Recover the amino acids of this structure.
């Protein structure tokens, strides 16, 4: 029985112990592998691959492969996997979500299952949240994989060399972002030839920050779109009048009728900041009508103009440059509200993006129509095996299990967590909360303790930054202006005196190291010296690191000098630092730093020995008592409650020891920050998802460091409204609570978490319900993309077309001649027309009426096949296959595009079915199914027409062999058949089980109307199957040209549909 089979038999509570049982077997191979030289260790990769080729299971290699990777990582990058990291790696290999706290080395953990699964040669995708992390990990961890003989690829946006990108996907291991993997899948399914496709399947993916990608962004659609036909001139015209309208009141939420009447008098339009909407007042409507020289904007003929006005008002009133978007290279690029990252390629819908472009005076791109789309949720469900890692997943375990079939395993930490999580502090109003936040930041910044302030949106970050600026507090705010430095800014948030403001989800995947992270400076230093960090020599890297550390030391010294701490403060800080060291395990950097000073200090060594012997509960008590407890009348003095109070007093009595510690804290930025209590997380609001709050808290206390967190709330916060905040606020006023007086108690925090659980459950139910809608389109997408693959490969296309032609002929005969189907009697004239228009066969009515149906069917099928084979012989099978592929792919893509638009329209109004006591989901499934059947019918009908009716032009002076340009124009397409058939099981490559439900008209009724300049459908054929070239008489009428009938409509909207 394999390892995985054994683990599946283990109960949920015993899985961690089961994984822990694997660790001793891996560690037992250490001495054997350490004895191997580099060449023999690298040769293990070839040995493993040979064993897989001989039929051995991948699971059976886990122990040895993990041990080899552990030794290779030690030799190549100087990092050795911890025991808990081995457990996390095994969980990823088994296709689970591994929850590992921030700073536990998830990137290094991933190398274990990546190497093991990369041995199979089927491909492993490592998915990150941004390009920086993908590039960093591919270079950093890719060094280990390359050293062991595996190929490593990296896919980034704007890589248009298909050969290069295909090589990246062909590698054993490929790094990239979730968006790029998804867009490449869509592009592959829009390719016109196999040479343009880059991906090779979906074998195994490990998703970093899996909760963000598979939960938060799960339903984010990846869309490839093309410009629609509408003009953009109106956006420019509307933008000119918007500044002339008078701004009115700005509100937050609905107002009562009497309040609304007063607001109407404030200006031409009212801005609702909460609903993100702008509405014209009655006076504003009249003003806009005068500016536009329009009589009535509410007239149905002017609804499009009114829509443009509303979007223009939103663009000017609600969307701010460098906050909601940036203008770069003449393009408006959206900024993610929650992370501050740019989202190139994304566009606001419903004309809003065009309105913003008009506002910024850049080129307005046309409204887009979707060409291909997929949600991240559906994309990642295509992988044969999926795994993920994050610091916060346990709260979403039911959703991972229900939607992705992923179990969540909470891996233990390498060192015990000693972070202090303070109870929530609740104020009555938002201004009171803001003042309290600023006060705490000011106090901490004065002492030099680093603070990371988490907000729920960029707008709130900007507002808080403005308040700090007024107070003269030095800070950095992560917003759209600094999006490219996101990792740099967040990685330095642990430096002495740093005050960093960012959204809760910003900088995910970037570790915050106390005292600062020199790696970013090293990289930047190499780039400034025009040295590629990925190919830099060891000497260059060492030189850059020495320079970076010197710069950081100089910065720290300057910050200390600026604050001018007196000697008494320094001694007190040193004493508290000594007391705190006892809370750390003996392998903690701070413990080891102090231990180095104890070599010739007996009292200090005695104290450290006693600290090492302390049980974990007492160590945790030291860390918690380190921070003042302001919920008591008198703050608890840390040193008075220390469990090693006697030993500590003996150490402090030695002035030489205290002086040495003071000197250490003045020279080591990291230890100075530790002495101050580490990184403090200050959140200005609770998120509706607990895991987002946990992720923010997890920034502090990495790898057993000291740290703390506090959440400030107000009764005006969105989440607090669940508690009936208006009623509670009134009660607080009646009780006489003074302004700026907070409510702080663990019971309040627990109540808020219960509310978060309720919101999470509601959100999960919504996402689960919406998934059922998404699944409808997903199944249709799978069918269409399967059709495209069949056409691209070209193996079954010829036979499919011939089978389809026979099926259609049978359907024609049955509907035209069978009295059981044809309710209006036999219609040989209609049958003759349909055979001519579909296959180019000229079949006289006399022949139809004078021949038995079975004999006629065989004759028509033989003649249709003869047409096909004659054309194939005329231009050659290879060129015939090329023509078919181009024709069919264009037909499929054009019809699929229109189908996606139809589904969008269906979604917009399907909820109204509930008013008729009908389930909208059931109705959506039924109607989208009918739409899909119509889609497949149109694809098949047009495929037959084009293949059988198109004629290559023979030029004697030129060779025939170069491919003929047969690009389809929409207005060249054959007219649709008279009526679509509701075929319930129509799929490519399968015979029809039901006849076509077609009705035929008489020859007189079937004659198309002729207009001056309209094309005449004169496809004439003969019994020999050779069809003459169709020649157009007069000027061609385009689909977007005015209809010749004089109706004033476009041809495609009028007689172009007949």
């Amino acid at each position: 029985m394999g390892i995985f089979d054994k683990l599946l038999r283990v109960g949920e509570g015993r899985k961690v112990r089961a994984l822990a049982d694997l660790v001793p077997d891996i560690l037992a191979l250490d001495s054997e592998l350490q004895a191997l030289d580099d060449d023999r260790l690298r040769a293990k990769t070839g040995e493993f691959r040979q064993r897989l080729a001989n039929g051995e299971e991948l699971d059976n290699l886990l122990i040895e492969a993990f041990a080899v990777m552990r030794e290779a990582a030690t030799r190549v990058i100087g990092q050795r996997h911890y025991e808990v990291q081995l457990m996390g790696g095994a969980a990823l290999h088994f296709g689970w979500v591994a929850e590992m706290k921030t700073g536990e080395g998830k990137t290094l953990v991933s190398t274990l299952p990546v190497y093991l699964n990369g041995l199979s040669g089927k491909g492993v995708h490592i998915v990150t949240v941004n390009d920086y992390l993908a590039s960093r990990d591919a270079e950093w961890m890719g060094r280990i994989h390359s050293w062991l003989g595996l190929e490593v690829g990296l896919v980034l946006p704007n890589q248009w060399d298909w050969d290069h990108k295909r090589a990246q996907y062909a590698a054993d291991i490929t790094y990239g972002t979730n968006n790029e993997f998804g867009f490449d899948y869509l592009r592959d399914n829009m390719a016109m030839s196999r040479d343009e496709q880059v991906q090779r399947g979906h074998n195994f993916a490990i998703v970093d920050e899996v909760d963000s990608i598979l939960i938060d962004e799960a339903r984010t659609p990846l869309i490839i779109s093309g410009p629609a036909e509408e003009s953009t001139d109106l956006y420019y015209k509307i933008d000119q009048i918007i500044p002339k309208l008078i701004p009115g009141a700005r509100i937050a939420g609905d107002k009562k009728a009497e309040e609304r009447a007063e607001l109407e008098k404030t200006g031409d339009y009212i801005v609702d900041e909460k609903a993100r909407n702008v509405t014209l007042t009655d006076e504003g409507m009249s003003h806009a009508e005068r500016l536009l020289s329009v009589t009535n904007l509410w007239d149905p003929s002017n609804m499009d103009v009114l829509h443009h006005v509303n979007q223009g008002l939103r663009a000017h009133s609600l969307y701010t440059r460098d906050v909601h978007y940036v203008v770069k290279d003449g393009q408006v690029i959206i900024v993610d509200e929650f992370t501050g990252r740019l989202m190139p390629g994304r566009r606001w819908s419903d004309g809003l993006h065009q309105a913003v472009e008009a506002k910024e005076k850049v080129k307005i791109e046309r409204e887009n129509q979707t060409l291909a789309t997929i949600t991240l949720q559906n994309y990642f469900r295509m992988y044969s095996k999926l795994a993920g890692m994050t610091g916060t997943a346990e709260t979403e375990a039911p959703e991972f299990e229900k939607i992705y079939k992923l179990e969540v395993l909470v891996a233990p930490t390498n060192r015990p967590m000693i972070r202090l999580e303070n109870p929530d502090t609740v104020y009555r109003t938002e201004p009171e909360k803001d003042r309290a936040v600023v006060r705490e930041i000011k106090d901490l910044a004065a002492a030099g303790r680093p603070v990371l302030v988490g907000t729920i949106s960029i707008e709130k970050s900007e507002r808080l930054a403005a308040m700090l600026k007024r107070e003269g507090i030095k800070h950095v705010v992560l917003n759209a202006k600094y999006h490219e430095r996101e990792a740099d800014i967040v990685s330095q948030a642990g430096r002495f005196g740093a005050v960093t403001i960012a959204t809760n989800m910003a900088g995910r995947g970037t570790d915050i190291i106390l005292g600062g992270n020199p790696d970013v400076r090293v990289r930047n230093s190499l780039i400034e010296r025009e040295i590629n960090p990925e190919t830099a020599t060891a000497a260059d890297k060492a030189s850059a690191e020495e320079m970076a550390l010197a710069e950081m030391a100089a910065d720290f010294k300057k910050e200390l000098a600026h604050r001018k701490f007196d000697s008494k403060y320094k001694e007190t800080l040193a004493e508290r630092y000594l007391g705190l060291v006892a809370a750390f395990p003996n392998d903690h950097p701070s413990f080891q730093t102090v231990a180095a000073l104890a070599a010739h200090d007996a009292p200090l060594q005695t104290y450290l020995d006693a600290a090492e012997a302390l049980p974990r509960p007492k160590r945790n008590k030291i860390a918690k008592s380190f921070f003042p407890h302001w919920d008591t009348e008198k703050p608890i003095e840390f040193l008075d409650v220390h469990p090693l109070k006697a030993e500590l007093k003996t150490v402090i009595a030695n002035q030489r020891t205290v002086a040495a510690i003071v000197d250490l804290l003045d020279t080591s930025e990291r230890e100075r920050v530790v002495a101050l209590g580490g990184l403090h997380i200050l959140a200005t609001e609770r998120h509706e998802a607990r895991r987002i709050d946990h992720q923010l808290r997890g920034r502090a206390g990495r790898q057993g460091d000291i740290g703390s967190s506090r959440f400030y709330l107000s009764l005006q916060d969105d989440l607090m409204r669940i508690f009936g905040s208006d009623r509670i606020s009134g009660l607080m006023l009646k009780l006489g609570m003074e302004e700026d007086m907070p409510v702080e108690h663990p019971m309040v925090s627990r109540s808020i978490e219960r509310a978060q659980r309720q919101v999470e459950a509601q959100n999960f139910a919504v996402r689960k319900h919406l998934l059922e809608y998404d699944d409808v389109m997903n199944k249709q997408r799978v069918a269409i993309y399967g059709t495209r693959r069949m056409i691209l490969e070209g193996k079954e296309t010829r036979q499919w077309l011939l089978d389809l032609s026979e099926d259609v002929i049978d359907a024609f005969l049955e509907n035209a001649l069978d009295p059981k189907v044809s309710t209006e009697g036999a219609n040989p004239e209609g049958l003759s027309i349909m055979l001519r228009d579909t296959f180019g066969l000229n079949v006289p009515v006399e022949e139809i009426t004078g021949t038995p149906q079975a004999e006629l069917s065989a004759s028509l099928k033989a003649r249709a096949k003869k047409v096909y084979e004659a054309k194939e012989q005329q231009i050659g099978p290879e060129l015939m296959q090329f023509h078919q592929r181009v024709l069919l792919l264009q037909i499929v893509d054009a019809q699929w595009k229109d189908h996606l638009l139809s589904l969008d329209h269906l979604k917009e109004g399907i909820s109204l079915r509930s008013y008729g006591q009908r389930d909208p989901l059931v109705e959506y499934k039924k109607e989208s199914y009918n739409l899909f059947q119509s889609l497949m019918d149109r694809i098949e009908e047009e495929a037959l027409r084009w293949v059988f009716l198109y004629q290559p032009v023979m030029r004697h002076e030129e060779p025939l062999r170069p491919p003929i340009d047969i690009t389809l124009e929409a207005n060249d397409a054959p007219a649709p058949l008279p009526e679509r058939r509701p075929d319930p099981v129509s799929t490519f490559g399968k015979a029809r089980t039901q006849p076509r439900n077609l009705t035929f008209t008489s020859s007189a009724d079937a004659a198309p109307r002729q207009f001056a300049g309209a094309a005449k459908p004169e496809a004439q054929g003969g019994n020999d199957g050779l069809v003459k070239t169709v020649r157009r008489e007069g000027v061609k009428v385009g689909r977007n040209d005015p209809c010749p009938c004089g109706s004033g409509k476009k041809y495609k909207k009028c007689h172009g549909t007949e």
